[in-house]
Design brief:
This protein has 148 residues and is of the alpha/beta class. The protein has 6 helices and 7 strands. The chain has a 7-stranded mixed sheet.
Length: 148
């Protein structure tokens, strides 16, 4: 996927057990959707907490954040409660959403660490790929949103 692509709608379950759709999430403004390999691990915690810590900056540009991994709903809920993340954490256990975005992989880490900035019309504004830059995803997503 690359900037300018239109994203097909999809659904997933959030940490509260509610079914959400991409189109429903976009009703609140542009979405920064970040895929992380596994909740409760050090890298994914650092990344998610950085997204949490930049809440006011994302609010200033009218955007919202959501994390997604193959973790079950119960683990997503525990991850949110432990770190007070305050944004949707989506469960993609069959990795259908990860496959749609081209970040599904096999092995102990079911998805690649990637972030997608999606405008309200489901147009992809930008993509960030980095397995090791845990804080760079949120910073780069903000830059994409500020430059649009």
């Amino acid at each position: 996927m690359q900037a300018g692509d239109r994203i097909d709608d999809w659904s997933a379950t959030d940490q509260s057990g509610r079914k959400v759709t991409l189109s429903g999430l976009l009703e609140g403004g542009p979405l920064v959707l970040f895929f992380y390999p596994k909740a409760m691990t050090s890298g994914c915690t650092a990344e998610s907490c950085h997204f949490r810590d930049l809440a006011s900056e994302f609010s200033e540009v009218g955007a919202q954040r959501a994390g997604i991994s193959a973790d079950p709903v119960k683990r997503q809920k525990a991850f949110d409660e432990k770190h007070g993340l305050g944004f949707p954490l989506l469960s993609d256990p069959d990795r259908a959403v990860a496959k749609q975005f081209g970040v599904k992989r096999f092995g102990p880490l079911p998805s690649k660490r990637s972030t997608f900035v999606i405008d309200t019309d489901r147009t992809l504004l930008g993509v960030i790929h980095s397995e090791l830059d845990m804080t760079g995803h949120a910073d780069q997503a903000l830059a994409i949103l500020r430059d649009r």
